[in-house]
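Weekly puzzle thread! Below is a chain. First person to post its structure in token form gets bragging rights.
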Amino acid sequence: MSPRRNRPKGAGSSGGSAAEDRSGRYGGWQSTESWQGEEWSVRHVAGASAEGKTYRCPGCDQMIPSGVPHVVAWPEHAGVDDRRHWHKACWNAKDRRTLRVQRSRNAPRF
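Winning reply:
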């Protein structure tokens, strides 16, 4: 018996662009959205890509645990340092939230 073939015939190296490779590497897709008068790049990250990492969501100020699917968003004109990791629900509800997150006196600011 021959081994099972996981790819269809002829599916070798397709020579795709680097942008296609980057979006596939993180297990999601990337789009552009308008928010607060700016264009934002939004990338959906699969849980497997976030394994071993935790982030603080700016929408709810709670931790995003390791391995949880989430959204990474940043203004298009900004650099890598301005990326923020959001819960998917928090990103979808960003227009319904207040702009200032109330923190306790001793809470760390991320």
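Puzzle host: Confirmed. Bonus trivia for everyone else. Confidence is low (pLDDT under 50) at residues 13-26.
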